[in-house]
Amino acid sequence: MRFDEAYSGKVFIMSRPDFEDADAILYGMPMDWTVSFRPGSRFGPNRIREASIGLEEYSPYLERHLEEVTYFDAGDIPLPFGNPKRSLEMIRDYIDQILDKGKFPLGLGGEHLVSWPIIEAMSEKYSDLAVIHIDAHADLREEYEGELLSHSTPIRKVCEKIGPENVFSFGIRSGDREEFRYAEESGMYMAKFDVAEPLQEMLPKLAGRPVYVTVDIDVLDPAFAPGTGTAEAGGISSKELLAAIHIIAHSDIHVVGADLVEVAPNYDPTEQTAIAASKFVREMLLGWVK
Length: 290
Prior knowledge:
The protein is an alpha/beta fold. It has one domain (21-288): 3-Layer(aba) Sandwich (Arginase, Chain A). Helices cover 31% and strands 18% of the residues. The protein has helices at residues 44-51, 84-100, 115-125, 154-162, 177-186, 196-202, 238-249, 272-288, and strands at residues 24-29, 58-59, 64-65, 71-76, 104-109, 130-134, 167-172, 189-192, 210-216, 254-261. It has an 8-stranded parallel β-sheet, with helices on both faces. A two-stranded antiparallel ribbon has the order 2-3. The radius of gyration is 17 Å and the shape is globular. Pathway: Amine and polyamine biosynthesis; putrescine biosynthesis via agmatine pathway; putrescine from agmatine: step 1/1. InterPro entries: Agmatinase-rel, Ureohydrolase, Ureohydrolase_dom_sf, Ureohydrolase_Mn_BS.
């Protein structure tokens, strides 16, 4: 599938009708083929779009309006159900097309494994790429129950691709002993439990570098985002995640792409998770797309 093909479904608020004039491409990756607890994140992208209709188009945080950013919602990639290998190949091909056009990719997941082919493509475009990873889980396993393609493995794959010293994780509060040992011994950066304060301290070291940002909604405490597949108690608030997005927006790093993953709306009848996610996406568009 080409990202510039017509899409007849729901779109994120104020999406432009023409991809050619857009600086950013918003796209969905409806995949949850490898989840180990609760499936359903494949329904996340469309629920985020639907929730966006309730947003204001102006951000009082950034003092910008969505009319100031040109983006095109390309819809969801039609991934083959139950086939993670082929799905990841299709995501990689899709991202290559977006990057060839010089546009900013902003992806909606889907399980966190979908971030891996995106970052792989980004690393081949930007030789000095750094990755900011905001999540409850370390995602540093080499495999999970014998499966190499697992939602528990994407950040380990990223470390092996670009070097652990170029990976910066924030908000981590879950993982097995070996994951935390790997983080400590490999040279990657990991801030446990908190996001905004350690992010503020770390970002000056990344000034001027191209950075990809991947955000797992489960970094939030389940009180703020119950609609996710692997909820983890003890997380940050929505306010704190907004602050982190704005810290990145006001920094000297060069954000070259991003994603927000793991919204599983079936576990949240109040829709607060999708509503929060849509606001985060609005702030990413306004703050990170230059």
